[in-house]
């Protein structure tokens, strides 16, 4: 067995053909381009992936494979590419978790769909949310009348949050500042943002 190991082209198998810089730069560029593309897609469409969406994802992964790995099938090259993708994700997640402006740039803002029982049609169209989809989520929240909906928001992950009208009074410090501004309240009252240095100190209460 050891005799056969001597004839394995170890250098060709392990070492990437392109330079290490290229092995790192390729996945970074493809990652950033795809992030911009998916950033432009409606959040709701990403949340409710259909069979066609899964097919698109599979095809995209196949299309960009060569752009990521180049003319290289080496083991260390593949590991370098994978580690680069993991590192980019970790870095961007860290940035988005600590900077409100960065999170808005990369992920966008929550979108107000219903306010005080009134459906905001322009927001619905802009986010490609159907009335069936909205009202289905309202029913799932245990609400049978539109007039009982205080707020309905399209979250960053594509889900729809429903707040009963009886619960839509008083301080709204859990609402994003963008939503508070839309409903005529002080955005500074929100604690639902990532700029942790700017979160008001409540004295531990």
Q: Any key phrases for this structure?
A:
four-stranded antiparallel beta sheet, disordered C terminus, CRO Repressor, alpha+beta, 11 helices, 9% strand, 52% helix, 205 residues
What is this structure, in a nutshell?
By secondary structure, this protein is α+β, with helices and mostly antiparallel strands. 52% of the residues lie in helices and 9% in strands.
What does this structure look like?
The chain has about 200 residues and is an alpha+beta fold. The protein has 2 domains: about 10-105, no CATH class; about 110-195, CRO Repressor. The chain is about 50% helix and about 10% strand. The protein contains 11 helices and 4 strands. The protein has helices at about 1-5, 10-15, 20-40, 45, 50-65, 65-70, 75-100, 100-105, 120-125, 130-140, 175-180; strands at about 110-115, 120, 150-155, 160-165. The protein has a 4-stranded antiparallel beta sheet. β3 (about 150-155) and β4 (about 160-165) form a beta hairpin. α3 (about 20-40) packs across α7 and α7 packs across α8. The chain is elongated, with a radius of gyration of 24 Å. Residues about 200-205 have low confidence and may be disordered.
> What is the first-to-last residue Cα distance?
68 Å
Mean pLDDT: 80
Q: Beta-strand percentage?
A: 5-15%
How many structural domains?
Answer: 2
The coarse overall form would be elongated
Give unreliable regions as ranges.
198-205
- The share of residues in helices is 40-55%
